[in-house]
């Protein structure tokens, strides 16, 4: 690999409220050990958002004392849905509600603005890529992994031989929309969970904040009608409070999170029979929870992954590290791989 001082790549993680940026040198060393955030202003439309990314770029370069001339490429990740080339869906998205975003070439616009190649991934894929490389290190290029990251939705990605699997239309690794078996997961009388994408019974309909709000919490409140969350309105606010209750051992909350963990375990079982990866990574809000609750959740996931003995001997099941920085770092790693031809 090139000398560390010769050139760098920059990773830009675009979100609904903030952009996070990092710098990765040619030797593969990150020059930033913390979040470096600036407002994303995506709700003000594409023109403003592109300039905010340029601001994020200049800010992290100033912080690390790096001249713009040393930047060989930029890795960009954004929420989806978007194409493999970074074109936002023609119908927009949760973070991209301004009509100017519909069908907007986000990657191309940033590349034209900064004059260096921009390598695109969606945010789930970028975080999955970082999880893979930080776990396997030098062996990353000979290993495979699947990551599930629980947030408002269920993101993640599939990494094979150190590269994100994108698919023909850029929609590979949409783990949240994989249908999972629900027998034994749902209680008697519990409705089939519905996803915002229009599917019923996919992983995101259970294992996501939206799944809690729309499906799980409304049902479990009928079983615990006197629970204090029954008095919290709107129900979206109650859903956001649920993790704290789970950390305190609340029976209703543990029922909800047990179903989520079961869903992820079943999702990883599908992955085991489809890609047979070396590692399964779990990320999201649960990773940021109290250690005892985090470990309970991970163990429940493990109990619900059905692996053959041969797979158990070689596979790892672990948490995504540095989740708040995983997007920017994964984006930077994708840019570095593009430059060095990996």
Automatic annotation (TrEMBL):
Database matches in PROSITE patterns: ROK
Highest taxon in the source lineage: Bacteria
A family per Pfam: ROK
Gene3D superfamilies for the chain: 3.30.420.40
InterPro entries: ATPase_NBD, ROK, ROK_cs
Cross-referenced PANTHER family: BIFUNCTIONAL UDP-N-ACETYLGLUCOSAMINE 2-EPIMERASE_N-ACETYLMANNOSAMINE KINASE, ROK (REPRESSOR, ORF, KINASE) FAMILY
Record family assignment: Belongs to the ROK (NagC/XylR) family.
Name of the molecule in the record: Glucokinase
UniProt gene name: glcK
């Amino acid at each position: 690999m090139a000398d560390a001082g010769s050139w760098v790549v920059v990773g830009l993680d675009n979100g609904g409220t903030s952009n996070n940026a990092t710098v990765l040198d040619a030797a593969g060393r990150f020059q930033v050990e913390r979040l470096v955030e600036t407002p994303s202003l995506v709700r003000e439309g594409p023109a403003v958002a592109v300039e905010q990314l340029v601001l994020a770029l200049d800010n992290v370069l100033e912080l690390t004392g790096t001249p713009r001339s040393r930047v060989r490429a930029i890795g960009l990740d954004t929420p989806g849905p978007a194409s493999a080339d970074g074109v936002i869906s023609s119908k927009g998205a949760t973070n991209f509600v301004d009509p100017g975003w519909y069908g907007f070439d986000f990657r191309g616009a940033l590349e034209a603005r900064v004059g260096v190649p921009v390598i695109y991934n969606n945010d789930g894929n970028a975080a999955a890529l970082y999880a893979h490389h930080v776990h396997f290190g030098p062996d990353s290029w000979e290993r495979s992994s699947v990551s599930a990251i629980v947030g408002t939705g269920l993101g993640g990605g599939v990494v094979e031989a150190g590269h994100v699997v994108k698919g023909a239309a850029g929609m590979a690794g949409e783990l949240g929309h994989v249908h999972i078996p629900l027998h034994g997961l749902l209680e008697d009388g519990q409705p089939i969970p519905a996803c915002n994408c229009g599917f019923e019974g996919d992983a995101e309909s259970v294992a996501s904040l939206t799944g809690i709000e729309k499906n799980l919490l409304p049902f479990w409140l009928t079983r615990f009608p006197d629970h204090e969350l029954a008095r919290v309105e709107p129900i979206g606010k109650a859903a956001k409070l649920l993790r704290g209750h789970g950390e305190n051992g609340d029976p209703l909350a543990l029922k909800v999170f047990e179903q989520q963990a079961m869903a992820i375990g079943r999702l990883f079982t599908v992955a085991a029979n489809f890609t047979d990866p070396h590692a399964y990574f779990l990320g999201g809000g649960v990773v940021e929870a109290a250690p005892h609750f985090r470990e309970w959740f991970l163990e429940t996931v493990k109990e619900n992954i059905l692996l053959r003995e041969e797979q158990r001997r070689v596979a790892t099941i672990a948490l995504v590290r540095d989740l708040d920085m995983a997007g920017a770092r994964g984006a930077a790693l994708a840019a570095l791989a593009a430059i060095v031809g990996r």
